[in-house]
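Good morning N.,

You mentioned wanting to compare the apo and holo forms, so I went ahead and generated the holo version with zinc ion. This is what I fed in:
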Amino acid sequence: MAKHILKCPQCRIYTLKNLCSSCGVATSQIKPPKYSPEDPYGDYRRKAKYPDLVAQGLL
Ligand SMILES: [Zn+2]
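and this is what came out, ligand included:
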């Protein structure tokens, strides 16, 4: 599976290292998207997104 993706807050680049290879600033972990069916907000997002897709003619 995917490794933990870290992001440099200064360069705003993504890396897998704890320290940014460009500026040396400590990177921070970004929130991984949740796809759990038990995640109520995930379900909310899917429902909220549906009308948007309809409006764009994608569904
Ligand atoms: Zn950096």
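The beta strands are 6-7, 14-15, 28-29.

Happy to go through it together on a call whenever suits you.

Best,
F.
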